[in-house]
Amino acid sequence: MAARNAEAARRTGETDIKIHLNIDGTGRAKISTGIGFFDHMLAAFARHGLFDLDAAVKGDIAVDGHHSVEDAAIVLGTAIRRAIGDKKGIKRYGYFILPMDEALVLCAIDLCDRPYFVFEGEEKITAPMVGEFDTQLVREFFYSLSYAAGMNLHFHVLSGTNAHHIIEAMFKAFSKALDTATQIDVRIEDVLSTKGTL
Length: 198
Ligand SMILES: [Mn+2]
Known about the structure:
Elements: E1 5-11, E2 15-22, E3 29-32, H1 36-49, E4 52-59, H2 66-84, E5 93-100, E6 103-110, E7 116-120, E8 129-130, E9 133-134, H3 137-149, E10 152-159, H4 163-182
Parallel strand pairs: 3-4, 7-10
Antiparallel strand pairs: 1-2, 2-4, 5-6, 6-10, 8-9
Helix pairs in contact: 1-4, 2-3
Bound molecules: manganese (II) ion.
Manganese (II) ion (MN) is lined by residues 40, 164, 168.
């Protein structure tokens, strides 16, 4: 099977973003967002999902990270939707429960084209910032990504106290769940739906 690649870009008065994603990659990442912890999270997403990801994000970080993170999510979600294409033969569902020290995060995904976002346990993230990353942007990132990608995305932060650990566990759990959901199962003819469409 040919590797499933996609590009997406977006340019506004606030941000200029280009993303290339290979769903069938090996975890290589070339990331530049201007926000160190966000670079770290996108690199972890690529590595642990075995996706190849180039992300060039230029935004108005002199204001704050909000526009950069939110718009990067829109572009990454668009790239995911394009890369999985017609969804023929994919597993569709994926989930993972990922531990990172004291943090434990459940992520579940349905690539159903009906966006929905649930984030339980958000209150466990008590630190306002991790480095230059505003922790309120975790919700913005995954909400925007779920809508752009057309995915049902659930997070439950089951335990955790350290914001770096909780957020990193979320990105890694998401990446592992997405890796599962996008895998091809040769037993699946057409798309995995009784409706015949996803
Ligand atoms: Mn880390």
